[in-house]
Task: structure prediction
Amino acid sequence: MQALSPQPLAPEPLARLLLQWGVAPVAAAPVAERLGGWLGWAEAIGLSQLLATAPAAGANVAARREAVDWADAALARLQEELTAAFDDALLARESAESAPEGVPLADLLAPYRLHHAQQQRSMAARVATLRERLRPRLAEASGALARLAQLDAVFERAIVAQERPLLASLPALLTKRATDHHATDPRRWRTRFWADLQRALRAELDLRLQPVQGLIEALHQADS
Result:
């Protein structure tokens, strides 16, 4: 049987995907209030010291343009490589076939759970590396962008700590999706579940890349 090859989908916000899957949204406080609550004492002190210092004046046009070219290429390469890894050929092929009878659902789910965990670790590590490598290039471009890079470093620790519980809850949610699909169609449930898994991975990547995309957008705006 021909392998299942999902068509590439535009990333969708994770919050919207969770809402579609029946996860009730949580009322959000204003952004400034949420950020204040997320900062630990170390981050708060670092932020206070940073804001008390005026950003350096001046800009390096050549460095800024070089940073734009590098950042655009690095982001495109990262997105391409990560999304390609999401679509595991063996799992895609097995998902297109009828599930074997007599095999416990937990056993059939095991390779999917492993794949999801591997992709989550890869996303976390590679996006963090790109974000870290991007900051020095901002710092070389101008004083204002150097300040932005410093702010990003302070907020990264706080925001990652808030994201971690949400992203850690996704495996359980995906297991529930698999259970529901299996109850509806015990033989063909893996096709629908594989599509759900791809959507979850793409939505998570979209969430993780938002700070990086914000830094790159700041580079573009400074270059205009």
